[in-house]
Amino acid sequence: MVLQTRRGFLKLGAILGPTFAALQPSVLFGQLQDAARTLGHGVSAYGARSRFETVVRLLRDSRHSEASSSQTPLQDLHGTITPSALHFERHHAGVPNIDPSTHRLLIHGLVERPLEFSLDDLKRLPTVSRIYSLECSGNSRTLWGEAGATTAQSTHGMTSCSEWVGIPLSLLLQEVGVRPEATWLVAEGADASRLNRSLPLTKALDNTLVAFGQNGEALRPAQGYPLRLFVPGWEGNISVKWLRRIELVDQPYMTREETSKYTDLLPDGNARQFTFVMEAKSVITHPSGGQQLSSLGSHQIEGIAWSGRGRVDRVEVSTNGGEDWHRAELQTPILPLAHTRFRFNWTWDGRETVLQSRCIDETGYTQPTRDALIAARGLQSGYHNNAIQSWKVAADGTVENVYV
Ligand SMILES: Nc1nc2c(c(=O)[nH]1)N[C@H]1C(S)=C(S)[C@@H](COP(=O)(O)O)O[C@H]1N2
Ligand SMILES: [Mo]
What we know:
With 404 residues, the chain is mainly beta. 12% of the residues lie in helices and 32% in strands.
């Protein structure tokens, strides 16, 4: 690893120097020999992580865990794929226990031929796999309120990114034959909440999937096993889990989830409705709330960015509370509608400062400041908070959320 400086390139040792304790070669060799004498454990049918790894989801404090959520530990992840066991969860009535051999997907309503598909039927069709992130529109909801002691996990952890495998919904709609009057469809889950949402036919025909695979294996029960709708770039709520029914209709059905919930109340008393797209957003995950910088000097600022409108075009980082902005390095490949990791090398002089990142997507949309968002939407809209996040680094190296 080398970092660029004014004078060219600096070697790794020169930067990290005092961080690593120098060992005598004889000591090192002794340790290696000891490790080699201990017999390890054998093969296992299904893997588990090292017992030294303790990273977990954060469970929202709630009286009913069946109607609750859990958050992805963004600050502890490497790369862009969220391990399935750490994908955030949001359940309205718990995780149902569904036997895939009896589960069916019914597609009916304004169609030529209503059809019922088993999992086996679906798996015989041409499948596709796509890497997409999924974000709950309630993500960062607490950031409409007071600033304070938070972590990237608690402020931004309701976004995760997986490889999803399934059938394009357009293909299933071709099989049933959509009648010309159909303009929307209603998707329904098989959980106790019977969660249902109206989806415009245009999006259903665009890139919506009926997914059964996640990160190389079957969906996790929490993610909708054995079948979920996956509507890329749109608020998580519409990606109906435990999908059992799709009805073609000629208007949106004004379900609970698109009237009393998942609408955004504006200062004039009107509410925005069908705010499907998750706009461009980013968050610095290192250094972030709850972490501590242990020394002055070089630190790698790292984070993730994404946009529900396509690819991330660039991410800019400010290390002085938004006065100056610098272009961060983006990890390739940069995939549309998926998490993109960014990195920026920063030298901390030990003074208090504020770190920020902003995402600009391929449509030219720029992630707004918190003030701009509040000016446009007020403080009561609840959902869709994609404001620039500010982490204050104090002189003692502690990091916390502030509003600037
Ligand atoms: N059937 C059903 N589908 C559902 C939900 C639910 O409770 N029941 N929750 C929705 C919400 S609000 C979100 S944000 C996403 C969360 O998906 P995940 O738990 O796989 O992260 O699923 C959506 N689909
Ligand atoms: Mo959600």
